[in-house]
Amino acid sequence: MDEHGTCGPHGHAHGQEAHGPARTADLVARAERLAQDLGLQFTTLRRRTLEVVAEEGRPLGAYDIAERLSAPGKRVAAVSVYRALDFLTEHGLVHRIASRNAFVPCEHGHGAGESAVFLICRSCGSVDETISAEIERSLDRTLAQAGFKPASRIVEIEGECGACQGQRDIRL
Amino acid sequence: MDEHGTCGPHGHAHGQEAHGPARTADLVARAERLAQDLGLQFTTLRRRTLEVVAEEGRPLGAYDIAERLSAPGKRVAAVSVYRALDFLTEHGLVHRIASRNAFVPCEHGHGAGESAVFLICRSCGSVDETISAEIERSLDRTLAQAGFKPASRIVEIEGECGACQGQRDIRL
DNA sequence: CGCGGATCGTTACACTGTAACAGGCAGGGC
DNA sequence: GCCCTGCCTGTTACAGTGTAACGATCCGCG
Q1: pLDDT band of A14, cuts 50, 70, 90
Q2: In A, which residues are within 8 Å of B158 by CB distance?
């Protein structure tokens, strides 16, 4: 569907968080605590799905995840991945990017209640997750004014991330 | 995919705008002016696609539109509808609801530059489009702070609209 | 008339997501 | 121990969403 990679699928830490194994370990630890506390089952499939999503620096489709989880002779069906993703999204460990039909790891420790803003770069395909109390407040005001009771919020901005703007400037 | 209809697919004017033929005529007129001004072709397929989307009180999938445009012996393929929808969304006449893979008519005269907030009701499936300068400001601030250059914005809130909350109160 | 550009019809295909059913596995009560 | 129950997973099948590619048609323009 797309190629990307202009500023590299891994390794660019634009902002606060670092991608890669460190974040993966954090997320897995959080998932284990959460499962412990709530009496849920953090199964192998769910853990491996979370790991695959966390390792990647860009949104992954369910079928991409299935492919990465598959080994010669041991194929993982997409439907299983969807079920694992249902679990992970339900508990705020990964997010679904509606405009891409793809999934990214949750980069904040926020409870499932809060809502995030996703910054999706068209050049490199990376996704940054930020939280703004100010945006939430103005959203809440608008919703209250419309008499609308929100259940879930989707805020996705497509554009060009800072790193890619810099790269483009150099090339010109 | 879903049934809806709890508060009726048509006829509930919650707020400012009225659905139905009046809005349809407005939109078509706007499209004709726009095509005139920019030297674009507002073809029959595009007009009929716009009409179908405008008449419906809820988001329509591309295949639903194709079905409504088809007559016995004169089938309209989904791919043609997609091309018409590309044209219509590009020029701000309809909006795509990313979380539903569906399309709604634009209910504001805003230029394609501004961004809208969509309130999607889980009970009746209706979609309200509102604009809030306050939300735009806080979004802009957050984006500027992140060094992110936005190209398009998606803000979709799922929940329960005022009308459906009222209905539910009555039934309880 | 010939040419170029845009639109549209058609086919084929890839990707996304879910329904339904069967097997496996762990824990709880007897 | 044994069965029963509930949850998770595997498998198949299918519905829904979206695009690529090619050809035909239409239309304005030189």
Answers
A1: very low
A2: 150-154
